[in-house]
């Protein structure tokens, strides 16, 4: 091989053996070459003639001599900038959904994949000139895992719908960049070896302490990224499993067909005598209705206390999609009425709600007053206490929890070691761990003390005053918190037709968890339904 300065490796060997090169042609080979304009292979070399090979530690011995390596770095910088802009856009879309950017899922998965992609690109840039076999192998493993995730998202219809084009674009980009990192590392390794052989006469096998530290650091970080990719993949498999659980009712498109709301109804709209009876419309509290109050509804229907009931999962709960951000209680009331209309359900309604669900029911009642024949509020939340829901600290914790939720740090152990089923994850005791649920609670928190408070305050002013009202409170909470007791008392003044205010002793905030609580709720539901039936019969006789 001929070096840059014209001295061949064979000539060096001859000189070591005492054989002097002949004059003429050999002397021409040893003469310093003419200094010409710098090109790809001489750009970093010192000017002027120089004999022999360069030292391996010379800064001129660099893969950056090659245009191919330099262009790889330029493209990597460009990809890093593009990925960062996409990352910022996804971060903003968690709080405010740009037009066309709404994903019917939580939006945390596409953010996680983009964060992983940005991490890979930054590692490549930081340790660009110190490639290693370990980095190539780990990047290849990450690429394979991400490819499996991409296939999974595209193959499972429910995942494909929830992620939308935003999530699909994020995972495809992650796959392409992971392949790019493997390709880049191999090209830099080749370029480094090529320049070492050309300028020093051999490929350098030694590493300096700084290079070893760089290789170790990059390897450790890449291993962490690989573990993150594995966790994302495992959580995605759980989501695929959960997607196979069919909803008991139907999903209906709302808000310009942007997303779907799950609605379920059971029972008859008429009694044994053929009279039309109100339908009880349940609104859940902090969690999905199926995981809590469903027992009350089924018992009331089985015992004949009600003839028909319906419930709808709020956006992000159970089988319902997430709504675009921001999303207030008033918006939820509007999409609920739209979903009920598409389902062919109509009043009169007896609204039964619990906790923060009472905020949603009160707004629905004020906007559909002619169709509402009764209000049952179970441990309702007062609008003056919405600041507890909308505190900045709570919002930050929900956001942070949502960001790490795709890792499945709580769902995976629960599924592997605690026997949590897909029912548990969709609407049961593990539902709070899902990204959709966390996104819904984050949306609720962001506007609780602003948009939602204004909407429910306005609802109070236009609430029909003759609507029958029942308030059921937790004895434990009333005795524990004097402010809570005061606000419960104030809610009994929502209308002028208070049927009763019941305080269930020894009952927690979820009153229906006790036998006395369930019995009281069922009793009051029956009274509200029968009162409407009796009123309808008397009006019919008068006519």
UniProtKB/TrEMBL annotation:
Q: Which UniProt keywords apply?
A: Membrane, Transmembrane, Transmembrane helix
| Membrane spanning stretches | 71-96, 108-128, 134-157, 164-183, 215-238
From which domain of life does this come? Eukaryota
Pfam families in alphabetical order: DUF2417
> Any keyword Transmembrane?
yes
Q: Does the keyword Membrane apply?
A: yes
Question: Looking at the record, which segments are called Disordered?
Answer: 1-54
Q: Give the SUPFAM superfamilies listed for this entry.
A: alpha/beta-Hydrolases
Q: What name appears for this protein in its UniProt entry?
A: Mitochondrial integral membrane protein-like protein
What species was this sequence derived from?
Hyaloscypha hepaticicola
């Amino acid at each position: 091989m001929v070096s840059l300065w014209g001295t061949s490796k064979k000539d060096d060997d001859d000189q070591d053996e005492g054989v002097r090169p002949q004059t003429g042609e050999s002397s021409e080979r040893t003469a310093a070459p003419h200094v010409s304009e710098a090109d790809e292979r001489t750009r970093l070399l010192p000017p002027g003639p120089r004999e022999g090979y360069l030292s391996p530690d010379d800064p001129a011995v660099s893969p950056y001599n090659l245009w191919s390596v330099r262009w790889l770095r330029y493209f990597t910088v460009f990809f890093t900038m593009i990925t960062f802009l996409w990352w910022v856009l996804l971060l903003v879309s968690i709080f405010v959904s740009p037009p066309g950017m709404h994903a019917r899922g939580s939006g945390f998965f596409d953010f996680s994949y983009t964060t992983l992609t940005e991490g890979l690109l930054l590692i490549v840039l930081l340790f660009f000139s110190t490639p290693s076999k370990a980095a190539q192998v780990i990047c290849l493993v990450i690429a394979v895992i991400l490819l499996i995730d991409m296939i999974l998202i595209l193959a499972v219809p429910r995942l494909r719908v929830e992620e939308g084009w935003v999530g699909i674009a994020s995972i495809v980009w992650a796959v392409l960049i992971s392949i790019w990192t493997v390709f880049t590392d191999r090209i830099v390794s080749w370029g480094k070896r090529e320049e070492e052989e050309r300028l020093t006469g051999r490929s350098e096998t030694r590493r300096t302490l700084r290079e070893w530290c760089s290789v170790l650091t990059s390897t450790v970080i890449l291993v962490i990224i690989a573990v993150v990719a594995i966790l994302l993949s495992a959580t995605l498999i759980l989501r695929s499993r959960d997607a196979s659980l069919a909803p008991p009712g139907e999903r209906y498109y709302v808000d310009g067909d942007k997303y779907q709301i799950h609605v379920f109804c059971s029972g008859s709209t008429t009694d044994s005598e053929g009279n039309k009876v109100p339908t009880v419309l349940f609104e859940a509290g902090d969690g999905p209705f199926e995981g809590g109050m469903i027992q009350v509804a089924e018992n009331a229907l089985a015992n004949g206390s009600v003839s028909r009931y319906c419930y709808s999962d709020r956006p992000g709960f159970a089988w319902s999609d997430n709504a675009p951000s921001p999303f207030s209680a008033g918006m939820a009331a509007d999409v609920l009425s739209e979903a009920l209309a598409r389902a062919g359900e109509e009043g009169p309604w007896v609204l039964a709600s619990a906790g923060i669900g009472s905020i949603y029911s009160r707004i629905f009642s004020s906007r559909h007053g002619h169709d509402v024949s009764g209000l049952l509020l179970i441990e309702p939340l007062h609008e003056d206490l919405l600041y507890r829901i909308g505190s900045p600290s709570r919002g930050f914790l929900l956001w942070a929890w949502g960001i790490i939720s795709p890792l499945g740090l709580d769902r995976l152990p629960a599924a592997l070691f605690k026997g949590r089923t897909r029912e548990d994850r969709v609407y049961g005791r593990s539902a709070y761990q899902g990204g959709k649920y966390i996104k819904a609670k984050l949306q609720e928190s962001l506007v609780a003390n602003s948009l939602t408070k204004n909407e429910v305050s306005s609802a109070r002013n236009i609430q029909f005053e003759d609507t029958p009202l029942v308030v059921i409170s937790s004895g434990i909470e009333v005795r524990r918190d004097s402010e809570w007791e005061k606000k419960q008392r104030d809610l009994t003044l929502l209308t002028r037709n208070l049927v009763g205010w019941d305080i269930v002793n020894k009952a927690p905030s979820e009153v229906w968890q006790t036998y006395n609580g369930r019995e009281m709720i069922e009793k009051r539901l029956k009274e509200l339904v029968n009162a409407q039936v009796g009123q309808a019969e008397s009006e019919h006789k008068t006519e």
